[in-house]
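Holo model, zinc ion. Inputs:
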Amino acid sequence: MGKYKLDMHIHSVSSGHAYSTITENARYAAQIGMEAIGITDHAPMMPGSCGHIHFLNLKVLPEYIEGVRVYKGIELNITDSAGRVVKSISKGIF
Ligand SMILES: [Zn+2]
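Output:
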């Protein structure tokens, strides 16, 4: 059994700079004894991230994948007046 039961800030390949799918992340979490993960891919303004339809469609995923509760969220961006991302904040959607 692992040291941690949950991790609420995990990226998938949809963020553009991570290399695992949501299912792969859930499978690994199950292998190390975690109970829950939060998928918080970067919002669309982060270079390399996916579009907003990705987040709207997260509702089609089951609550449990590989026996691990999967919370769906987003890493929000705070931008300056020029539209550059200056800060990111994790936020649960459901
Ligand atoms: Zn990131």
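Residues 6-92 form a domain with the TIM Barrel fold (CATH 3.20.20.140). The chain has a mean pLDDT of 90.
Archived with the compound record.
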